[in-house]
């Protein structure tokens, strides 16, 4: 009978050891999850900031293109501005004829 008790005691010890080991692994994995969630939030913030930066640059380019378009087309309606505009059609045509 003592042999059965020893085997039972040994199995219980093994199970307790496994449980302790698994608890430690669970704690380690939970800490890793917390760390990964924090990293994920940081990356989300960085991505959001990059999207904002891209949107701001797009708006800047749109404003710049609008100013260029206004300079090309808006000022060319008056004859006086045609002669002083750097981007006048005549200036562009002469540059094209020179191989530029």
List keywords for this structure.
single chain, 100 residues, mainly alpha, 88% helix, rod-shaped
Structural commentary:
Keywords: Coiled coil. Residues 70-100 are annotated as: Disordered. Residues 75-100 have a biased composition (Polar residues). This is DUF904 domain-containing protein. With 100 residues, the chain is mainly alpha-helical. It is built from 3 helices and no strands. The chain is rod-shaped and about 110 Å long. The model is unreliable at 77-88 (pLDDT under 50).
In brief, what are we looking at here?
This protein has helices at 2-74, 79-84, 89-97.
Gyration radius (Cα, Å) is: 37 Å
- How confident overall, as mean pLDDT? 83
Structural class of the secondary structure composition?
mainly alpha
Count of helix runs: 3
Helical amount: over 70%
Principal-axes geometry comes out as: rod-shaped
List unreliable stretches of 5+ residues.
77-88
Strand content: under 5%
Structure summary, number of beta strands:
0
For the biggest sheet, the summary is:
none
Q: How do the helices and strands follow one another from N- to C-terminus? A: HHH
Q: Could you give the distance between the termini?
A: 104 Å
Show the helix and strand layout.
Layout: H1 2-74, H2 79-84, H3 89-97
């Amino acid at each position: 009978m003592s042999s059965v008790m020893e085997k039972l005691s040994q199995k219980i010890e093994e199970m307790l050891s496994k449980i302790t080991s698994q608890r430690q692994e669970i704690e380690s994995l939970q800490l890793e999850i917390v760390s990964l969630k924090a990293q994920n939030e940081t990356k989300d913030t960085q991505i959001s900031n990059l999207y904002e930066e891209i949107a701001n640059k797009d708006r800047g380019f749109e404003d710049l293109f609008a100013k260029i378009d206004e300079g090309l087309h808006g000022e060319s309606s008056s004859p006086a501005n045609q002669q002083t505009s750097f981007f006048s059609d005549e200036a562009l045509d002469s540059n094209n004829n020179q191989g530029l």
